[in-house]
Amino acid sequence: MHIDEELFQSKDFKRNLKLYEEAVKTGKKVFMDIDDMTDIIDYYNYDGRTEEANAMADYALELYPGAIGPHVFKARQALAMGDHSEASRQHQAIDDKSDIDYFYLSVELSIAASDITSAEMDIKAAYEKMPPEERDNFMLDIGALYVDYNYVKQAEKWLNKMRNKNHKERLELIARIHCCRGEYDKAIKVLEDLLDKNPFTYRYWNTMGLIYMFMNKFDECLNCAEYSLAINPDNTDGLWCKAKALSVNGDTQGAIEAFGKFMKRIPDNAKAEVEMGSCLLQLGDLDKACDYLQKAIDHSEEDPAVMAQAADDLAFIYSAKKDIDKALDYLDLSEQYAPYADDMPDAEYQRLVLRGHVYLMNSQADEGLKIFEKAVKKSKRNPEIIFKIMVSLYDHELYDNVVAYFRRLQRVMPEGWNLGYAYAAGSYIKTMEISKGVKLLQKACQVNPDEVELIFGDFFPPEIKKEQYYDFVKNMKF
């Protein structure tokens, strides 16, 4: 059950891994102890490279039919895919049914089937027979199983029975329990304490990076990723955190490089392919973006999140290519998966805005405006939706409409709102209502100079920084 990260850095393990990988490249066979082969399976699985782990498991079972390590791995993979019958078949194929890992897999099958009563009976019976000195490790493994299936109360119960409350693996599980409950700050505090004792455990940095990602703190996520990759430059969780953080922070080229390294480690990964496609779309490389997005759909196994995002981006691409029929087909595909993928309360309405945008891109303004109205009504005048409509209208030079939507936005702006002023200012100026435009531009310079830079960047002398925009325009009168 325990993954020994230090083992993967040992000379013996690295030697065995190199022998195996060189044999794979040359098509030769390599013979080694089943425990060493199981370590390689664990390494690939730990690094997210499930295809390589499966290949090693198949090879190990050719040499050692009935060996417990490969069968446990395959059973757990089957459970992850929801194939309980295949997991049971792998379970029964294990020769040594007295091995503790056979017992753990038996318990996991019960937990996966939501039969917690049976699982608890078996756990308690095994616990009572176990020598006291072995019980802490046993409870760690049981705690990990329960956490994997989000049964945090049961996990906490067994972990709290441990004598060694400061065991590092217990603390890792406590951090995971905090995450399951959404207590991210508590989880980070536990991980920081662990890192104080051992700052070179890249798993801790990765876990903390993923937590920061959930919290939308991408600067902190990137910082954790950099530490993780300094310790282990090729680890996939570190590459993923770095790529996502760079993407959100606007370093699209850097994100593409990081996603590329990730995909070298894990080819045909749909989540990485859709992210790469979205990054390439941002850079305007529509053909390459289209290739990656289509690959993502092909490799997604109908993962709703991948399907919805890839279809949205493909809709935009085909709209830009003036193939509106194909664009609308992809929007229909996106909406098919969206109910299972959307975790944002306004995602449905944002998708309507995209549909309207597609019509505008294909010179069907009347149809687009109808859909924008539908988005506003269905969202109950959500200011985020109105703002996104303004951006689309501005992109298509429908300045009168931008002004009209900005007036509607003003009626529903929450306190502290700072979006849309520069778009409205530009639209007033384009429609020759100069004094209104300048007044709003002054306001925009105060509340959102980034938006001003986006809309009016060429208006200002190059030596003026965006923080100085307001001083430049405050005395302008027309």
What does this protein structure show overall?
- With 478 residues, this protein is mostly helical.
- It is 73% helix and 0% strand.
- It has 27 helices and no strands.
- It has helices at residues 11-26, 34-46, 50-63, 68-80, 84-92, 100-112, 116-129, 135-148, 152-159, 168-180, 184-197, 202-214, 218-231, 236-248, 252-265, 270-282, 286-299, 304-320, 324-341, 347-361, 365-378, 383-395, 399-412, 421-430, 434-447, 449-456, 469-473.
- Helix 9 (152-159) packs antiparallel against helix 10.
- The N and C termini lie far apart (74 Å).
What about the largest sheet? none
Taken in chain order, the helices and strands follow as: HHHHHHHHHHHHHHHHHHHHHHHHHHH
- Report the structural category: mainly alpha
Describe the global form: elongated
Radius of gyration: 28 Å
Q: Provide the residue-averaged pLDDT.
A: 92
SSE inventory with pairings:
Elements: H1 11-26, H2 34-46, H3 50-63, H4 68-80, H5 84-92, H6 100-112, H7 116-129, H8 135-148, H9 152-159, H10 168-180, H11 184-197, H12 202-214, H13 218-231, H14 236-248, H15 252-265, H16 270-282, H17 286-299, H18 304-320, H19 324-341, H20 347-361, H21 365-378, H22 383-395, H23 399-412, H24 421-430, H25 434-447, H26 449-456, H27 469-473
Helix pairs in contact: 2-3, 3-4, 4-5, 4-6, 5-6, 6-7, 6-8, 8-9, 8-10, 9-10, 10-11, 11-12, 12-13, 12-14, 13-14, 14-15, 15-16, 16-17, 16-18, 17-18, 18-19, 18-20, 19-20, 20-21, 20-22, 22-23, 23-24, 24-25, 24-26, 25-26
